[in-house]
């Protein structure tokens, strides 16, 4: 635009020349010269203010367009061929901003989840993905946590204004799969389902704890199922996962939705029970909680506990992956650190 006022014209030329040299392009809109023009406008007689003001506003609009155009060019410097191979010898500003998929790799959590699922699928389980928002009934009520039950405090999690809950465990799916697959029992077949999903807890984050992580719930119901079946199933899984012989041991625990409830530990696959930093020199690693499904949970799902029994467990995917690869800090998984991720390519 050609400005009639010589002062506006001079300031416009000066600021247009300055713009390419600025690292922060938006700073040109607060340039002292431009601010001074607006201050001058306030003090002008009304008879001169309209024409001068229109030119000052036009200059500001022009600068805003130039800044917008410059910023868009800095993000997309030119036509991009997203099919072009990534060449490390080409200057960074001329490389394609979208890299070919062949340069990507599977995240270790995704790969670990798939490995675990493949083992259980070969063992006859069906996989059903968990939810990332649920309600109080499926989080607590269907799992033998009545209102006011003190054990609810152990599952402190996040809630929305609509009273939806970010699940603290994938057990929220247990009632659903028991109802969906109970027809199997009438046909003489068991209910065998694994439930992978992301869970959320109000945790202080450190090397071993995250507020958001992934869990695998397992549910098995049939005739005459006992603790021996549970331990044998999980021992078989661990030996397949770590590709070596594994010893296991249990100790009593408490979960409202299982009876009896157990904590399972496995012999350290790194030191073979000799003692190392991974197992805190005990030879054993505590891994997960498990137990026989409480009769109240079966009844709530429409299954007769006098006729059928079953077991359930819940295990952190990140913990399994950390143990398998000797990862010392759970925070690495969400760090987006390429040096860490490239170890799993």
Characterization of this structure:
- It contains 11 helices and 7 strands.
- Strand 4 and strand 5 (258-267) form a beta hairpin.
- The protein is elongated.
- It has 345 residues and is an alpha+beta fold.
- It has helices spanning 6-18, 32-43, 46-75, 108-122, 136-139, 174-181, 183-186, 227-242, 295-300, 317-325, 338-341; strands at residues 126-127, 191-200, 212-222, 248-253, 258-267, 284-293, 309-316.
- The protein has a 7-stranded mixed beta sheet.
- The mean pLDDT is 85.
What is the fold's blueprint, element by element?
Layout: H1 6-18, H2 32-43, H3 46-75, H4 108-122, E1 126-127, H5 136-139, H6 174-181, H7 183-186, E2 191-200, E3 212-222, H8 227-242, E4 248-253, E5 258-267, E6 284-293, H9 295-300, E7 309-316, H10 317-325, H11 338-341
Parallel strand pairs: 1-2
Antiparallel strand pairs: 2-3, 3-7, 4-5, 5-6, 6-7
Features:
345 residues, alpha+beta, seven-stranded mixed β-sheet, 7 strands
Percent of residues in beta strands: 15-25%
Radius of gyration: 31 Å
Envelope shape: elongated
**Structural class, from secondary structure content?**
alpha+beta
Q: How confident is the prediction overall: mean pLDDT? A: 85
Q: Give helix and strand order, one letter per element, not per position.
A: HHHHEHHHEEHEEEHEHH
Count of extended strands: 7
Spatial gap, N to C terminus = 55 Å
Major pleated sheet: 7 strands, mixed
Treating each run of at least 4 consecutive H or I residues as one helix, how many helices? 11
The residue ranges in which pLDDT falls below 50 over 5 or more consecutive positions are: none
Strand order of the largest sheet: 1-2-3-7-6-5-4
Helix amount: 25-40%
